[in-house]
C-alpha cells in the first residue's frame, strides 16, 4: 500500500515509505537518475555560507535587515545564466531566483522539452520560465555557480516533487511553495488533499537533507491569485502550511504576505503573522522552527503608467522595511505589460533597495492604530485556526480539507473548484483591506461588525449599495486606475 492509498494525516512520512516514493518519483523523467542524496549533501556543504539561503535568512533576521529578491526565468540555460548575472550584479539582489515555466509547473515535461528545442532554434526564450527538470542537476549547478548569492526556486506549482529533487540536488538552497496556498491559487481540479500530500513530500525531502547536515530554506508563498487578500486570510494559510511543514521535520520555513499597500495594515500583518505562526507551532510542540516573514510587492493589477508603477515599487520596499520583514520580493515598472526585461527587473530591485535604505530605522511599534490593527488580526485568525484544528481532531491536514469543504476556510476568487470562493474583500475609506462578505467563515460577531462598519462608511461615501459586490469589484481594479481617477485634479474635482 502506498501513502496515497492511506488516509490523509499530518504525520511525518515514514522512512521506508518515503524511500519508495522517491524511487518512483525520480524514475518519472530521465534527469531524475542523476539525483544522489549523499553526493548532493556534499555539494551543499561545500558551498560558502553566503550562497546558502538558510543561514543568510537567519543572519538577516538577527541583523534586522530586509533582503531583496526578484522573480525571473527564461527557457534556455545561457539565457538563465545571463538573467541571474544581471539580477545579482546590476540589480544587487540579495537572493537570486529561478522561476520555472508553465509546462514544468504542470509536469508536462515533454512539452517543456519541445519548448527548449524551439527556444534554442529561435535564439530567444519561447517559454515563460526555466525548465529545470529537463535540464537536470548538472545544469542547475552551473546556474548556482553563476552568482555569488543564495538561489531559490520559484515554481508556482502544486506538484513540486520532481522540481524539488532536481533543484535541491543541483544546489538551490531555497524552494517557494506550499500545499494549501499554491493549490488554491493556481490550479482548478487538484484537490486540497492532493496538494497537501504533494508538499508533504517536498517538506519531508527538505527535512531529509537537514537530517544529513544541510539546512535548506522552505518558504510558504502567500497568495498569487492576483486579487485582494485580507491579512487574516493570508495568515491563516501561513499558520496551517507552517504546521504541515513542521510535522514533516522542516525547521527553516519562511512566510510570505502580499502587500495591502496600507502602511499600518501591512506592518501589523507582518508582526501578527510572525506571532501567530509561532504561537500555533508552540501549541503543537514545535519550538525550534525559524519563520522569517517576506513581504511581496503588490500582487494585484498594476497601472500602465511607468511613474505610477515606480511609486508602487518604491512604496513596496518602504512597506517591507517599515514592517520589519526579513526580505521583500520585488516587481518592476513593466509589471502591467508582462514579463519584464532583465534590465527592468534589475531596476526594480535597485528602486526597492533604495526605499529600504530610506526607511531602514523606522518602525510603527507603539502607534495606537498599529497596535489596534495587530490585535484585530489576532482576533480574526485565532477562531478560524482553532475551528480547523477542531474539525481535524487535532490533525492539521485533515482539518484543513474538512474546513474547505465546510467553508470554514475560504479564499476570494480562487480558481480551485474545491474552494467555495464566497468570501469577498474590499477597501475601506482609509485604504485598509476589509471583509465585505465572510461567506461561511465562522468569524465572531464582533469581527463581522468591525469590517461591515468600515465598509458601510465607504459605500455611503461613494453612494453604492453595501449589500452588492460593487465595492469588492472596484477594489480589485483600484490600484491600476489612471492617476486622474484616483486623485482628480483639484480644478476638475
TrEMBL record:
GO terms for molecular function: cobalamin binding; methylaspartate mutase activity. InterPro entries: Cbl-dep_enz_cat (IPR016176), Glu_mut_E (IPR006396), Glu_mut_E_C_dom_sf (IPR014714). GO terms for biological process: anaerobic L-glutamate catabolic process. Gene3D superfamilies: 3.90.970.10, Methylmalonyl-CoA mutase (3.20.20.240). The keyword Transmembrane helix does not apply. SUPFAM superfamilies: Cobalamin (vitamin B12)-dependent enzymes. Keywords: Cobalamin, Cobalt, Isomerase. NCBIfam families: MthylAspMut_E. This is Methylaspartate mutase subunit E. It comes from Sediminicurvatus halobius.
Amino acid at each position: 500500500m502506498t501513502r496515497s492509498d492511506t488516509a490523509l494525516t499530518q504525520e511525518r512520512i515514514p522512512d521506508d515509505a518515503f524511500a519508495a516514493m522517491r524511487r518512483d518519483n525520480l524514475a518519472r523523467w530521465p534527469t531524475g537518475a542523476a539525483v544522489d542524496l549523499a553526493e548532493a549533501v556534499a555539494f551543499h556543504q561545500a558551498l560558502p555560507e553566503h550562497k546558502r539561503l538558510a543561514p543568510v535568512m537567519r543572519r538577516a533576521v538577527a541583523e534586522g535587515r530586509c533582503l531583496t529578491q526578484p522573480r525571473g526565468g527564461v527557457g534556455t540555460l545561457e539565457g538563465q545564466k545571463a538573467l541571474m548575472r544581471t539580477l545579482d550584479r546590476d540589480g544587487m539582489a540579495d537572493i537570486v531566483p529561478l522561476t520555472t515555466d508553465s509546462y514544468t509547473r504542470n509536469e508536462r515535461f515533454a512539452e517543456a522539452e519541445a519548448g527548449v528545442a524551439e527556444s534554442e532554434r529561435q535564439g530567444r526564450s519561447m517559454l515563460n520560465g526555466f525548465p529545470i527538470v529537463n535540464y537536470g542537476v548538472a545544469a542547475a549547478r552551473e546556474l548556482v555557480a553563476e552568482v555569488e548569492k543564495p538561489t531559490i526556486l520559484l515554481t508556482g506549482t502544486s506538484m513540486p516533487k520532481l522540481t524539488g529533487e532536481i533543484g535541491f540536488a543541483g544546489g538551490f538552497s531555497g524552494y517557494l511553495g506550499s500545499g494549501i496556498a499554491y493549490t488554491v491559487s493556481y490550479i482548478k481540479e487538484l484537490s486540497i488533499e492532493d496538494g497537501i500530500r504533494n508538499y508533504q513530500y517536498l517538506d519531508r525531502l527538505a527535512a531529509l537533507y537537514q537530517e544529513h547536515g544541510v539546512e535548506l530554506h522552505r518558504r510558504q508563498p502567500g497568495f498569487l491569485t492576483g486579487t485582494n487578500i485580507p491579512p487574516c486570510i493570508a495568515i491563516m494559510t501561513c499558520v496551517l502550511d507552517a504546521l504541515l511543514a513542521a510535522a514533516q521535520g522542516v525547521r527553516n520555513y519562511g512566510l510570505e504576505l502580499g502587500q495591502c499597500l496600507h502602511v499600518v495594515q501591512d506592518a501589523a500583518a507582518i508582526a501578527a503573522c510572525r506571532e501567530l505562526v509561532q504561537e500555533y507551532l508552540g501549541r503543537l510542540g514545535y519550538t525550534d522552527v525559524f519563520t522569517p516573514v517576506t513581504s511581496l510587492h503588490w500582487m494585484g493589477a498594476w497601472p500602465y503608467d511607468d511613474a505610477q508603477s515606480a511609486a508602487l515599487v518604491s512604496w513596496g520596499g518602504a512597506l517591507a522595511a517599515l514592517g520589519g520583514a526579513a526580505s521583500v520580493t520585488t516587481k518592476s515598472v513593466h509589471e502591467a505589460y508582462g514579463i519584464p526585461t532583465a534590465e527592468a527587473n534589475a531596476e526594480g530591485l535597485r528602486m526597492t533597495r533604495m526605499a529600504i535604505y530610506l526607511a531602514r530605522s523606522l518602525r510603527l511599534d507603539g502607534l495606537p492604530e498599529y497596535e489596534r490593527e495587530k490585535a484585530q488580526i489576532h482576533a480574526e485568525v485565532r477562531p478560524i485556526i482553532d475551528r480547523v484544528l477542531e474539525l481535524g481532531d487535532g490533525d492539521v491536514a485533515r482539518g484543513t480539507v474538512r474546513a474547505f469543504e465546510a467553508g470554514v476556510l475560504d479564499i476570494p476568487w480562487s480558481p480551485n473548484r474545491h474552494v467555495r470562493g464566497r468570501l469577498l474583500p474590499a477597501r475601506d475609506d482609509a485604504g485598509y483591506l476589509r471583509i465585505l462578505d465572510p461567506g461561511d467563515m465562522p468569524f465572531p460577531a464582533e469581527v463581522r461588525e468591525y469590517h461591515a462598519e468600515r465598509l458601510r462608511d465607504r459605500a455611503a461615501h461613494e453612494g453604492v449599495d453595501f449589500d452588492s459586490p460593487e465595492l469588492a469589484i472596484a477594489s480589485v481594479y483600484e490600484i491600476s486606475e489612471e492617476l486622474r481617477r484616483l486623485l482628480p485634479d483639484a480644478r476638475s474635482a
